[in-house]
Design goal:
Elements lengths: L4 E6 L5 H12 L2 E4 H7 L3 E5 L4 E4 L1 H14 L4 E4 L11 E8 L2 H10 L4 H12 L2 H10 L4 E5 L5 H13 L11 H8 L2 H12 L3
Parallel strand pairs: 1-5, 1-6, 2-5, 6-7
Antiparallel strand pairs: 3-4
């Protein structure tokens, strides 16, 4: 089985689409944005009104993805906050984009999201949700975590290209936002914001 899929995963607002688009141009790779792919291929299971998001039919999605992967002669970049749906045997490398929770909060609020949805995603970033999902799916040796905070798209893309050319997970240091926010004296503030918004009807 040929490993030709590069996973770009991360919480909403971490820059997955812009970075994947640029990377696909450089690598001449097929770019699959899962959010768009699900709509274009009519792979929707249901609508989640509480989160204002579409729920994909995972079986149909996997089948359609595998069809695309097997048809392509090029590298494929699959991006989304559930990009780890791609079976492990096809994955060359998985990159998890991380963004400082305060910056993520700003980005999501600028999108006009309500507080409940904002802090649900900020808490997912804080709790390493995307990272844990990817590690459980592919194992730590295929995972590269990238802090995109205050970085330009080109900087992140170059970092990814470097990791692809010289893969080495031996010196991987995982980001600890709990520790960062605690040092900044705002951890309790974020925990309170999350607790307050989740308790609202």
């Amino acid at each position: 089985m040929e490993e030709k899929v590069i996973i770009i995963q991360g919480c909403p607002g971490t820059g997955k689409t812009s970075i994947s688009r640029k990377l696909s141009e450089i690598l001449n790779a097929l770019h699959i944005d899962l959010s768009k792919f699900v709509i274009e291929e009519n792979l929707i299971e249901s609508n989640d009104p509480e989160r204002n998001s579409l729920v994909p039919n995972n079986d149909l999605l996997i089948n359609k993805l595998l069809q695309k992967i097997n048809e392509s002669k090029n590298l494929i970049i699959v991006e989304g906050h559930y990009a780890d749906i791609v079976p492990p045997q096809y994955v060359l490398q998985a990159f998890v984009l991380r963004l400082h929770p305060r910056k993520l909060e700003m980005v999501l609020k600028q999108r006009g999201w309500d507080d409940k949805k904002v802090y649900e995603n900020v808490m997912a970033e804080l709790l390493d949700t995307c990272l844990i999902n990817v590690i459980e799916r592919y194992g730590s040796e295929k995972i590269v975590e990238i802090d995109v905070t205050n970085k330009e798209i080109d900087d992140v893309v170059n970092e990814i290209l470097k990791k692809l050319s010289i893969p080495d997970s031996s010196n991987q240091k995982y980001i600890n936002w709990f520790e960062t926010l605690e040092k900044e004296g705002v951890l309790n503030e974020y925990l309170l914001k999350f607790s307050t918004t989740q308790s609202q009807k």
